[in-house]
Amino acid sequence: MTSQKIIPARNWGQRMAAVLLIALVALLVFLVATSRHIAWAAIPQYIFDETILDGIRLTILFTVLSMVISIVAGAILAMLRLSSNPVLSGFSGLYIWFFRGTPLLVQIIFWFNIQLFIPSLDIGSIHIDTNAIVTAFVAALLALSLNEAAYMAEIMRGGLMAVDNGQSEAAKALGYTPSQAMLRIIFPQALRVIIPPIGNQTISMLKTTSLVSVVAAQDLLTRAQNIYARNFLIIELLIVASIWYLVMTTIASAIQFVIERRLGKSTNQAPGLLQSALRLMRAEGRNG
């Protein structure tokens, strides 16, 4: 009996689409590269410009601080959202609804102009001008952190709800308090679900910080705008900023990949915990 060779069907439609896509991308690259209106020689000149590097440092600082604050606030909001107390749960739900429902750009402008309806803080004989506290940096950080906290709360709530309810019951059987069960049993297991979206949000935050340029918070985009306002090399400076955003997001993506791979290798301790609880309950049954 002769064996028959299986020949895969050829999808000419996909091949034509691929060729067309390559041609369009090549045409776009050619038009940009040969444009006489872009001073390509100026791009290497500003890549490592000290002003641009200062903007990169501030962009990273905005990202780190806002993510740390939002993760802590998001964890608190997530636990409040899961609370059986209607006041606590309602407050968390209202916070998430408001900050997710209003544009971040509006929130940045609001915090920057908060002195319009709170000109000063008066505590007894102490008088503090609001502008002295809520600077452009503080306004931008507040807006980024409070807005991101709403998204972090939903991410963490989803991660906590993904952990089987039997974990709480097993921890209770082993004598753990609710707070101990949350910190030692439930939350570590929820991390495997929470970490990937947190990584995505961090990468997104690196780019989202560019919105603070509307209040001249001196991030990377603001520094690029300051330079091209003087020399009118608008496209060139935007290309420089885009290159650095790509570098930062690529590094952040690599870090996220390493963390996710390490978490993927970790073993789930749920079966051992459940077995310990069952053994404890059986022992108590025999003693009883």
Can you characterise this structure?
Helices cover 76% and strands 3% of the residues. It is mainly alpha-helical and 288 residues long. The protein has a two-stranded antiparallel sheet. A hairpin with a 2-residue loop joins strand 1 (120-123) and strand 2 (126-129). It starts with 11 loop residues before the first helix and ends with a helix. The model is unreliable at 267-274 (pLDDT under 50).
Q: What's the overall geometry?
A: flat
Give, in spatial order, the strands making up the sheet with the most strands: 1-2
Largest sheet: 2 strands, antiparallel
Determine the fraction of residues in helical runs and give it as a percent range: over 70%
Q: Which segments are poorly predicted (pLDDT under 50) over 5 or more consecutive residues? A: 267-274
**What radius of gyration results from the CA coordinates?**
27 Å
Q: Helical segment tally?
A: 12
Measured distance between first and last alpha carbons: 73 Å
Helices and strands, in order, run as: HHHHHEEHHHHHHH
Tell me the number of strands: 2
Q: How much strand content do the residues show?
A: under 5%
The average pLDDT is: 86
User: Structural class given helices, strands, pairing?
Assistant: mainly alpha
